[in-house]
Amino acid sequence: MKLNLLVTFGILTCYSMLGCTGGSDPVAPATAEKGHDDHDHHDHGEGAHDHFETFSEAVADLAAKRDAIKTAMEADDLKKADGPVHALGHTLEELEELATKQGLSEEKLTEVKAARDALFEAFAALDETIHGKADGKSWADVSAEIDAAIAQLQTLTADAPKEEEASS
């Protein structure tokens, strides 16, 4: 159990770099020093740091950002995909807390964590591609995993007690 928590913490620490990192890449923190110094200053788009009231809102946001990223990646517009990828990292960081607040069972929370971790990993691989890393992945490489994880989260939103039920 301790090892599982330690591994999960390590993964989250690494992949949370998708969010507010000031340009650090989760795999190679020295990216900014190697020619990507504009990353600290560019805008990740409107709503980049949205905070959600409910688990369902966050999952709907993930699906919307996934669709925007898919469109950009399929059009080979990496710059357009960059903002939503980073904003998605913020949403993923809040997911477990919102699911807990929503009153999901421990079993369902485990499913939320697994889907969140799969999304962090897949989008981190896309982020590497966006920032010119040879070992990044294409949309085609990760889309099935992303779609499955988001579908799982959408199923869990239906299982979540209503907010007023969870808080009583």
Ordered list of secondary-structure elements with their pairings:
Layout: H1 2-15, H2 55-74, H3 78-101, H4 106-130, H5 139-159, H6 163-166
Helix pairs in contact: 1-4, 2-3, 2-5, 3-4, 4-5
How does this model look, in words?
There is one protein chain. This protein has six helices and no strands. Helix 3 (78-101) packs antiparallel against helix 4 (106-130). It has 168 residues and is an all-alpha fold. 64% of the residues lie in helices and 0% in strands. The longest helix has 25 residues, at 106-130. It has a domain at 51-163.
Helix percent band: 55-70%
Seen as an oligomer or otherwise, the chain set is single chain
Low-confidence stretches: 1-48
Main beta sheet: strand number and arrangement? none
Alpha-carbon distance between the termini?
Answer: 30 Å
Task: Estimate the global geometry from the Cα principal axes.
Answer: elongated
Task: Give the radius of gyration.
Answer: 16 Å
Provide the β-strand percentage band. under 5%
Structural class: mainly alpha
Question: What integer is the average pLDDT?
Answer: 77
- In DSSP terms (H or I, runs of 4 or more residues), the helix count works out at 6
Number of DSSP-assigned strands: 0
How do the SSEs run, as a string of H and E? HHHHHH
